[in-house]
Structure formats: C-alpha cells, structure tokens
Write a structure and sequence with these properties.
about 400 residues; mainly alpha; two-stranded antiparallel sheet; 4 strands; about 5% strand
Length: about 400
C-alpha cells in the first residue's frame, strides 16, 4: 500500500537534460593539451625527475666508493700491521744474532785480524792487570778478559764449550788408540792438557757468578738452553770407575768433602744466629734510628756470611777439579758429562760412598768449627791458592798440607 508522503519532503525530480553538465567542446580540450604552458610544465617535471634520479644514482655510487675505500683501507692497515709485526720479530732475531756473533767474532776472524786483537787484548790486560783466558781452538791463540767471558750468553758459551769437548774427545781417542806412536802420543797429550786447562779456566770464570753458575748447571750445552740435568747416581758411579782414582786421590776428595760440609755447616749456624738477632731487634721497643742501625749491621753480616758460603763452594770446586784430579781425569769428566756440566757435590758424595767415607753429611754428624778445622781450612785455602798460579797435570796431594 502506497504511503502518502508530504509534498515538501519529496525530492524534486530533475530531468535528464538538467542533470547532465554541458561538456567542453573537443576542440577546446585538445588545444589546452597542446598549449605552450602545459608543454613547458611537462618538460620541467621531466627534468626534475631526471635530476632527482641522477642525484640518487650519484649518492649510491658515492656510498659504494666510500665503502670500497673503507674496506681497502682496513685491508691495507691489516697488511701493514702484519708486516710491522714481522719486521719487529725479525729485528729482535737479528739483534739477538748480532750479540751472538759479536761474542764469537774472534773465533772466526781472519788470522791477521785475530793476531791484532790478540796483541791488543794482551796489551790491555798487562796495562790494566785484568786476568785473561787463553783460547787456542784456532791458530793463532787469543785472549779473552774475564769481563768479556762474563758477557758470554748461554748459547755463545755452549758453542765454545762444544768445540772444546770435540777437540778434547778427539785427543782422548788418539791417546786410547794402540796405533798412536810415541812422538804423536806426546804431542796429543800436550794438546789434551792445554785444551782441558783452557776449558776449565773458561768455565771457572763463569762459575764464580752465582747466576751464571745456576744457568750452566741446569742447561744442555749442545742446545744452549735450560734443561734438567740427566746425570744420575748410576752415571757418577760409572764415571768414577772410568777415572780409576788412586787411594790417595780418594782420601783427598773425602777430606775435601768433610771440610766443605763442616765449613758450610758453621756458616749456616752463623746465619741462623744473625736471623734470630734480627727477630729480637724487631721485638724491642727501641728508637727507629737504633733499630735501623742494628738491622743494617745484621743485614751486612748476613751478606758477608752468604758471600763466604759461595766462596767456600768455589774454593772446593777448584781444589777438587784442578788439584786432586789429574788433567787426564778432568778431560774424561768434561767429555763424558757432555752435554751437561758435572756436579761437584754429587761426585764427592759418590766418592765417599764407594771409597769408605760417611754415607751422608748432615748437621747431626758434623762437628762445628774448632781450632783444628779452622787450621785445616786455612791450609786448604793455601793449597787452592797455589792452584791459581801453577798448573799441575797430575795429582797434587792435599793431605801433606793438612797434616803439616
């Protein structure tokens, strides 16, 4: 059913002719598209688009070039750092090699230069009173001052020591060969004695320094590097059999061992007493100046006792190797212990065990120093002093010095 709608609310009907907007004539539209203003605007827009595109492309290429340069710089920096590290390592190696070559330069110098250096060193030693070591591995022989010997590095000394061992070993082989004639035997014996004494003197200079001593007795001298000494009790027992010590030599070595331990035991007692005094000073309620003076004096005393202890070791070392043992026996020790240096203390202990001495030396079975032991040590020091100015190739008896 049709509802009645008020006439004022009904939408007015518009005729089709009235709803249609009259369109522009076709000719007017085409003319507007081809007008100068429209063409100009289009060209401007196109130019702007091309400029923006070119700008974006330029920025992209710039970023790529910047990234490439950054990566190239990083690669160059890494390469330069690696080259610098390599050059620094090579420089360190060359400096080390240079020091080594300087220490051994005299071994490989031409004869004329060597002779000049030998004369200059001898003249300097005579002028200054410096002691020297003779090196005759090459002809002509030359001299090294003790100061120069102490400057030898472990590799440099090892090279020199190895040459001595080779030459001394060659002499021992010729001495043990039945084909060696009497004239040759005399020449070889003389060469063996000369080389052994030179090697012993060279080693003795370094062994006077506690630091060098520690480095040498804990090193392999064929490698010039620190190592564990592999010479055990079985080795020293076999070495003593090879040396064929006489009874007089065994008695002298056992006496040296007793003097050595007695002296060191007395020095240890003195050191402990000084340490106790230092502790007592610390407990006293004294003025700081008094404590300072007391402790300074005690510290000096400890230093003196320590120096005496080291001097005792070196004195016994020289007395055993250069006095009681013959040069031939010392040559065998040098060769058979290579690439290590022998331990004098181990050798004395094995002698005591195998030749009737006490099995071990300790504070409990050693008497402190008394007039007799003091006199014996004084006599032994005189014995060693003679070894410093005279060369004895055979056994130089110690017992007469102790019993006179």
């Amino acid at each position: 059913m049709e509802r009645n709608i008020p006439s004022h609310s009904r939408p007015k009907e518009v005729s089709r002719e009235q709803s249609q907007t009259p369109s522009e004539p076709e000719e007017t539209s085409v003319a507007r598209q081809h007008s100068p203003t429209a063409s100009y605007n289009a060209r401007i827009e196109a130019a702007l688009e091309r400029r923006l595109a070119n700008g974006r492309e330029s920025q992209r290429r710039f970023r790529e070039r910047q990234k490439a340069r950054s990566q190239s710089t990083e690669v160059q920096l890494a390469r330069a750092t690696a080259e610098l590290t390599g050059l620094q390592a090579r420089q360190a190696a060359l400096e080390s090699k240079n020091v080594f070559l300087e220490n051994l330069a005299t071994l490989y110098a031409p004869a004329q230069v060597q002779a000049a250096q030998n004369t200059q060193a001898a003249r300097h030693a005579n002028d200054t009173g410096d002691a020297t070591c003779t090196i005759s591995l090459q002809n002509p022989p030359y001299h090294m001052s003790h100061a120069d010997v102490n400057k030898l590095t472990l590799p440099a000394f090892s090279t020199l020591w190895t040459e001595y061992v080779q030459e001394i070993g060659s002499c021992l082989l010729q001495l043990g060969s039945p084909a060696t004639t009497a004239p040759t035997l005399q020449l070889v014996t003389s060469a063996m004695q000369r080389l052994t004494v030179e090697a012993a003197d060279l080693c003795a200079v370094l062994l006077q320094d506690p630091v060098a001593n520690k480095a040498l007795i804990t090193a392999r001298l064929d490698e010039g590097a620190e190592a564990i000494n592999a010479l055990d009790t079985e080795f020293y027992t076999g070495l003593l059999e090879l040396l064929s010590l006489t009874q007089e030599q065994a008695v002298d070595l056992i006496c040296i061992r007793r003097l050595y331990h007695t002296k060191r035991n007395d020095l240890e007692t003195q050191r402990k007493s000084i340490v106790r005094q230092m502790a007592e000073v610390e407990l006293q309620d004294a003025h700081p100046s008094d404590s300072f003076l007391s402790l300074s004096a005690l510290i000096d005393s400890v230093q003196q006792v320590t120096e005496q202890d080291w001097a005792t070791y070196y004195t016994v070392l020289r007395g055993a190797y250069r006095g009681v043992l013959s040069t031939l026996q010392l040559a065998n020790i040098v060769v058979h212990c290579y690439p290590y240096l022998p331990s004098m203390e181990r050798l004395l202990e094995i002698v005591a065990v195998t030749r009737g001495g006490p099995a071990a030396a300790s504070s409990s079975n050693l008497q402190g120093e008394n007039e007799q032991t003091v006199a014996e040590w004084t006599a032994f020091s005189e014995y060693v002093a003679l070894l410093a100015v005279n060369t004895y190739h055979d056994h130089f008896p110690l017992l007469p010095f102790l019993t006179k």
